Amino acid sequence: MNKPNIVFIMADDTGYGDIACYNPESKIPTPHIDRLAAEGTMFTDAHSPCALCTPTRYGMLTGRYYWRTPKKHSLVMPYEPPVIEPDRPTVASMLKQRGYATACVGKWHLGLWYPAKDEAGYTQREENIDFSRPLDGGPIELGFDYFFGTAGCSTSDAPYCFIENDRTVGIPSVASTEDLHELPGFYPGLMAPDWDEMTVDTTFVEKAVEFIDRHAAARPEDPFFLYVPLSAPHIPWLVPDFLVGASEEGPRGDMNVLVDWCVGQVRAALEERGVLDDTLLIFTSDNGPHRGENGHSSTGPYRGLKNSAFEGGHREPFVARWPGHIPAGAVSDELLCLTDLMATLADLTGESLPEGAGEDSFSVLPALLGQGGCTPPRPAMISDTGGHRCDLGDFAIRKGKWKLIVIPARKEGETERRHLFDLKEDPGEEDDLIEEHPSIAADLAELLDEIKQRSSRAIECPRAGAD
Prior knowledge:
- There is one protein chain.
- The protein is of the alpha/beta class.
- The chain folds into 2 domains: 5-368, Alkaline Phosphatase, subunit A (3-Layer(aba) Sandwich), CATH 3.40.720; 394-458, Arylsulfatase, C-terminal domain (2-Layer Sandwich), CATH 3.30.1120.
- The protein is 22% helix and 17% strand.
- The protein contains 10 helices and 17 strands.
- It has helices at 31-39, 53-62, 91-97, 178-181, 200-218, 251-272, 311-314, 341-348, 365-368, 438-453; strands spanning 5-11, 41-47, 101-107, 146-150, 163-164, 167-168, 174-175, 190-191, 224-229, 279-285, 315-321, 330-332, 336-337, 381-384, 395-399, 402-407, 417-422.
- Strands 1, 2, 3, 4, 5, 6, 9, 10, 11, 12 and 13 form an 11-stranded mixed sheet that branches. It has a 4-stranded antiparallel sheet with strand order 14-15-16-17, covered by helices on one side.
- Strand 15 and strand 16 form a beta hairpin.
- The longest helix has 22 residues, at 251-272.
- The radius of gyration is 21 Å and the shape is globular.
């Protein structure tokens, strides 16, 4: 098959129940994503590797779980250094080697090196950062030809400015104000003088479309990979004027309408430029949502929310469209994880994974093409919550219909807790079977430890007793 363009759009905190085609009772209109589902395949058992944003972005780009890194807490906070090593293969570097033009437009949140004003090297002290110099360790050093976005959570993490390639767009020189400090989750810090919290995602869309146009003019014969990690619907839920009241859920719901609008704008740009049907277009989310309002269930039928090891924390909407290859109007219950993107795109482009890359990535290309399964066979899938330390977060391991949640002791006097669920009979995780099936729980716990010590792809044979 010819190499398609690849556009991967990832929302920030959109839940399984926020998308209308996944939740008929949703109070949020999502016609553009629903249209993608009608023209492609909707996956109902897709998962993020973590119920938080930084670890999922790491896992999606590298094909490995974030807790394999030396990082000792789950998020990259403002001004922290990169978590992807400069020699680590990424989806972008892999595709670039295979002739793709590559771009990231949106929220990065994987760390940067910030140059110091008065000394050689780098600093994490905002007041000592020289924003007139390049920021190192970011997307353009990890396989992306072009980057336009923000360092962290676009509307709640400093610095509040756009970054183009390795330079800030303007100099963050204005202190954030008290009215912003009162917003939920807002991290005080420096802002560019023209920074506007409500136009972040609309700007991302403009830049994504500009990239598509530049590529068509400069490299029309080559495929492109465009990664669009949106800011919406992450707190503080500042809705652009043209979408205020667009949902029945309230501001969080309106921000999910913004997500849908962004998907529609990118789709329209691809169609207008005649490349839509030559493009693998994927929409998903990085982790579970906040709780819905006004009777809206943001996780649909699933228990748990963002930062939870229950299904609602990591089961994501995942819709893929590629006419002539991906079945239209189909619904798939094949298990997949966002770490699988690397192996899947390697398979799609007819190459093997780079050596030492994608330890936790499996090709789900057969599932995308309606043929089922993944290669090599997956021993199990893990999702975690990070916690204050990656090694102390809650872990969920899934094998077949069985799911074990392990909640480690966090202080002296506590003991580890475990929960076991049969997701086939109990998708809402209401009936804990840990007492009825101790051997299954023990097998899954042993397999979890083995995957932690080795890698998912190093384990060839699924364990007996856990099917």
